Amino acid sequence: PPRDRLSLRISTLPSVHESLPMSATVTMSAVAAKAGARLSSRAISKQARALAATPRVAAKPRASLAAKAMLVTIEHEGKTYEVECDGHDNILDAALDAGIENLSYDCKMGVCMTCPSRVTAGEVDQQGSMLSDDVEEKGFALLCCAKPVAEGVVIKTVTEEELLDEQLCA
After folding, report:
1. In angstroms, what is the C-alpha Rg of the chain?
2. Angstrom distances, CA of residue 152 to CA of 50, 64, 130, 140, 155
3. Nearest to residue 115, comparing CAs of 152, 76, 153?
4. Could you give the C-alpha distances from 117 to 31, 59, 85, 124, 157, in angstroms and in order?
5. Are 70 and 150 in contact (CB under 8 A)?
6. Which residues form the 2Fe-2S ferredoxin-type domain (predicted)?
């Protein structure tokens, strides 16, 4: 379809519209602009009417947003750092925000395994990590996926080789 006649349904672009204002007309125009298109006023009116007729469900509050900030101790390259990790931050993001340098990482999704560490105290949640259960049970963690479960987490960075020896050879 021609770009100026492109009609977009918001529900098909959730990752684009989540952070935009939620009035139907503004959102549709913003979504279209972000997608590199323009919507005609007729298309906006049609979509706005459809959105107005759609039943709304209240979003459930995310528990992680209500979680309090926790101090995490990170041992890296012979130095010890304390970083504050709020309920939705993984330890890698908290460490980077705190200015810890030379941390190894790449994808930040738990796939590449370039941000290895070992939990020496406390407990972390590693939802989304590609580590096997037995490797996690031995205390290994990926900084990009690890979130503290409670106060008292101490985590030490390790080499990729140390992690891969456990993950692939054990």
Report:
1. 22
2. 50, 18, 24, 16, 10
3. 76
4. 39, 35, 16, 11, 4
5. yes
6. 70-161
Closest CA to 73 of 112, 124, 24: 124
Cα dihedral 100, 81, 108, 17 sign: negative
What fold is seen in the domain 63-169?
Ubiquitin-like (UB roll) (3.10.20)
Is the sign of the CA dihedral 159, 141, 108, 163 positive or negative?
positive
Confidence at residue 9, expressed as pLDDT on a 0 to 100 scale: 40
Quick one: which of 95, 96, 114 has its CA closest to 104? 114
| pLDDT digit string, tens, across residues 11-42 | 444 444 444 344 434 444 444 555 555 545 55
Contact 70/51 with Cβ under 8 angstroms?
A: no
Q: Where in the chain is the domain with CATH 3.10.20.30?
A: 63-169
Q: Is the pLDDT at 65 greater than 80, yes or no?
A: no
* Cross-strand partners of 76: 79
| pLDDT class of 140 with cuts at 50, 70, 90 | very high
> Do the Cβ atoms of 71 and 151 come closer than 8 Å?
yes
